[in-house]
Structures are given as C-alpha cells and as structure tokens.
C-alpha cells in the first residue's frame, strides 16, 4: 500500500482489498465516523530495470491527470442494443462461473436483444438518449476549474465503461499527453463490484500490459460517500427540496438506490449495501444536526432479470407507504451523481405514477448533484488529497508477464480446459438458455 502519512488524520480505517485485481482500500465495515477514504493503487514499488528510463515518475515536468470513471449511456436509440450488449458482456454484471465464461458473449447478445425494446422505450421517453456523456463532460470541466482555483493544473479525462468515450480511448489520450501522475476518481459515491470494480478491472488489464502505464504513479479514490462535502451537498439538496412541500415536517424522505443482485453482497463480498446504509446514516445525521427530523427509508430500484436483488424494492415500498397513509414523499436518488434514465424515467415517471396511484398525494424528487458547486469543490479536494499517495502499479513489463513460465502453464491449462468445454457447448448453451428464459 502507498503511504498515508500525508493524509488527513480523520480517515476511515482502511483495509486492503483486491476485488478488481488492482489493489486498493476499502473502508472497514464498522462505522468509525465521518472521514475521507482514498488510497493508492497497488503496489509494489519499483526495482530498477530498463523501463524505468521511460517511467513517468522520472520525467522532469509534472503533468497531472484525473481520470473520471463512469458507466456511459446510449446517445441515440440505435445505440441502445449495442450498449446493452457491452453491459451484459461484462463478467462483473453477469457473473458466470469460470467454466461457463465462454457463454458470456452469446448470452449478452441474447439478453441485449430481449431487453432492447423496453430500454429503448425508456430512452425515447427522456429525449432519445442518455444525458450521461454530456453531464459527465460538464462535471469534468467543472472539476478542472475547481482544481485550477486550488492552484492545481490538471487534465481531466472521462472513461466510460459501456459506451463512448471508452476507457481505452481515455487511457490512450493519457499516454499521448504524457501524464506523469494520475488520480482515478469513479463517479459512483459507493463502491460496487458492478460499477467501480468493473471499471477498475478494465483499467488494470490495460495498465498491466503497458510498460508506461504500469510505471505511472496512480491514486485510486475507491469510494467517497463518506466525505463531508458530499454528505453536506446531499443534505443541502434535501433541505431545499423539503421547503417546496406545504408541510415539510410531514414528508417521508425516500432514498432510492440502484440495486445489485443479493449474491454480490452475500457471496462476492460487495461492500455496496453496507456503504449505502452508512451513506444514508451520514446524510440523516447531517440533516438532524440542522434540526430536520423527518422519517426516512431506503429502498433499491432498477432490478433486471430473474435473480434476487437487494431488498426492499422501491416499487413495493412505495405501495406499502401509500397503504400506511403516508401522504408526502421526497424521492432521493443516492447511488449516482448525474441525472440518468433511472432518475428521469424510472423515478420521475414510473415511480411517481405508482406512488400517486397508491395514495401518496404530494411527490417531490431531489435533483442529482450534477455540477453542484460545493459537490464539485469537494471532489477537487478529494483529488488534491489523494495526489501525494500516487504509486506505480508494478515493475514487471508485458513481456515479463508473458515470459513467466508459471503464468504460461496456467494459461495453457485453462486454454485446454476451455477447448474441452467448447466441444460440449451446443448442449450446454441450450440448457443454460432454458434456465434463464
Ligand atoms: C451505482 C449505480 C449502479 C449500479 C450498482 C448498477 C448495477 C447494475 N446495473 C445493471 C443493469 C443495467 N443498468 C442500466 C443502466 C444504468 N445503470 C446505472 C448505474 C448502476 N448500475 C446507471 C447510471 C445507468 C443509466 C445509464 C444511462 O443511460 O442513463 C441498464 C440500461 C438501462 C435499462 O435498460 O434499464 C441496465 C440493463 C445490472 C445488471 C447491475 C448489477 C449487476
Ligand atoms: Fe445499472
């Protein structure tokens, strides 16, 4: 791990994790109070080899980059199916057992084709595409300006996981610009294997194979929901929106987070649910400190497919609250910081209609943070604080990895196994499809 000596003393205690292959830090599950969590990427420091001659840390002029990680979204209705293909082809989104990984792409083809009509309807109703790229670009510009105001001259890059600009493009640009130190900032406040974890896995694969990148000092801010600036910005938005109700004290604050399958949390150790609950605790504590003591609840939205997702489900809770006589409700999207299809269509249209049908009379929704200035300013602080802990990923070059005899035999073994499994594939594919449809 990198050194934390220069970091503020109110850090959440950290422990090492390796969900994506990069190693970075996870806040410990127990609550330790509001703090700031970040840490550097993995991290054996360099021994001398010929690559150090081109290692970025040895370049005289410092060039700092900030890489924003985000999901990406289809910009037109024609993009929807290929976007969905990219999403479902991600082994961090559909987690098949190793033996069935060869089915990932055919399965992604099938599911994306089946899902596309419903998804297209949703995107059509919000103007024919996702606003994510535009908003993320605006956030990138705002962050650059906020860092300039702190006397930090940086280039900010956007890396989307499932649509343009893809991670590979952003990384190519970073290389072209000869960046010498990089802070990686996922635009997800809470960590999930399916979001930040997936993007970090892609990054790690790119970095591992490239001599320049594997020697580039980087710091990864793996989750930041616990930062005071974020918590206060969310509380500001909620406090302001409550004032639009005629009886603000009577309003139920309804946090709605994007769900993940239960197996992520229970079998794969995804910290997402714990972090989400902690996040809500911190926001409510901040509101209480301002004398706002409304009831609140947390539910999970946007489930896809036949598996169990985190409960309670947003749609079911809305109906229950209506039945219980709740009359005023303020929806707070909490897992994402831009407006997107799940705020603009799912919450503003579907859930609003369901809530009103269920007896809730007064409905409100907190806007996404987007380019909110105190939020962007806090992200800029997070970047500035993370910079000193930037450390290079590894010392070994792509060739060294390829020449490693142990890795070579592991590859050979799994390659043979895969070839064997492929011989049986028509039967297996059929059985698997039947179980999913
Ligand atoms: C923290 C945020 C998110 C988590 C966790 C997450 C997990 C997750 N998502 C899917 C499936 C889909 N997600 C889709 C869109 C989408 N997802 C997020 C965020 C998280 N996803 C965002 C911001 C967006 C919207 C992008 C946009 O275009 O505005 C979609 C496509 C839309 C649709 O058809 O509903 C799918 C599908 C899974 C399976 C998953 C966890 C395993
Ligand atoms: Fe999603």
Automatic annotation (TrEMBL):
GO biological process assignments: heme biosynthetic process
Task: Name one cellular component (GO) term.
Answer: mitochondrion
EC number(s) recorded for this UniProt protein: 4.98.1.1
The family database entries (SUPFAM superfamilies) matched by this protein are listed as:
Chelatase
Listed A to Z, the keywords are: Chloroplast, Heme biosynthesis, Iron, Lyase, Plastid, Porphyrin biosynthesis
A molecular function annotated in GO for this UniProt entry is: ferrochelatase activity
Substrates-to-products reaction catalysed: heme b + 2 H(+) = protoporphyrin IX + Fe(2+)
Per the record, the pathway is: Porphyrin-containing compound metabolism; protoheme biosynthesis; protoheme from protoporphyrin-IX: step 1/1
Q: Where in the cell is it found?
A: Plastid, Chloroplast
- The source's domain of life comes to Eukaryota
Summary of the function given for this chain in its UniProt record:
Catalyzes the ferrous insertion into protoporphyrin IX.
Q: Hey, which family's this protein in? A: Belongs to the ferrochelatase family.
Q: Name the chain's protein.
A: Ferrochelatase
């Amino acid at each position: 791990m990198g050194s934390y000596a220069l970091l503020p003393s109110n850090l959440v205690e950290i422990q090492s994790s390796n969900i994506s292959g990069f190693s970075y830090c996870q806040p410990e599950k127990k609550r330790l109070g509001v703090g700031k969590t970040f840490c550097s990427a993995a991290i054996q420091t360099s021994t001398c080899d010929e690559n150090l001659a081109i290692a970025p840390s040895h370049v005289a002029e410092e060039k700092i980059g900030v890489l924003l990680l985000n999901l990406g979204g289809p910009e037109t209705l024609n993009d929807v199916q290929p976007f969905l293909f990219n999403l479902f082809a991600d082994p961090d989104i559909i987690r098949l057992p190793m033996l069935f990984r060869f089915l990932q792409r055919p399965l992604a083809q099938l599911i994306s084709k089946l899902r596309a009509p419903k998804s297209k309807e949703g995107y059509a109703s919000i103007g024919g595409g996702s606003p994510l790229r535009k908003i993320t670009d605006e956030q990138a510009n705002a962050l650059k300006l906020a860092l300039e105001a702190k006397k930090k001259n940086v280039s900010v890059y956007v890396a989307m996981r499932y649509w343009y600009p893809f991670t590979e493009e952003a990384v190519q640009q970073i290389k072209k610009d000869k960046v010498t130190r990089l802070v990686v900032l996922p635009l997800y406040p809470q960590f999930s294997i399916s979001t930040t974890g997936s993007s970090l896995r892609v990054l790690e694969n790119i970095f591992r194979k490239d001599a320049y990148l594997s020697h580039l000092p980087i710091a990864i801010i793996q989750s930041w929901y616990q930062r005071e600036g974020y918590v206060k910005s969310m509380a500001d938005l909620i406090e302001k929106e409550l004032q639009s109700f005629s009886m603000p004290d009577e309003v139920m604050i309804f946090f709605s987070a994007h769900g993940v399958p239960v197996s992520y949390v229970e079998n794969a150790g995804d910290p997402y649910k714990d972090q989400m609950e902690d996040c809500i605790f911190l926001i409510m504590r901040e509101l209480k400190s301002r004398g706002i003591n409304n009831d609140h609840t947390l539910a999970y939205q946007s489930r896809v497919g036949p598996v169990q997702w985190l409960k309670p489900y947003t749609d079911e809770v809305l109906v229950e609250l209506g039945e219980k006589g709740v009359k005023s409700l303020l929806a707070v999207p909490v897992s994402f910081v831009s407006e997107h299809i799940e705020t603009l269509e799912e919450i503003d249209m579907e859930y609003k209609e369901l809530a009103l049908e269920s007896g809730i009379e007064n409905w409100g929704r907190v806007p996404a943070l987007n380019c909110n200035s105190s939020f962007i300013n806090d992200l800029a602080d997070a970047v500035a604080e993370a910079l000193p802990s930037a450390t290079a990923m590894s010392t070994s070059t792509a060739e060294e990895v390829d020449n490693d005899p142990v890795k070579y035999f592991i590859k050979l073994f799994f390659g043979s196994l895969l070839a064997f499994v492929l011989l049986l594939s028509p039967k297996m594919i059929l059985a698997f499809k039947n179980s999913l449809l």
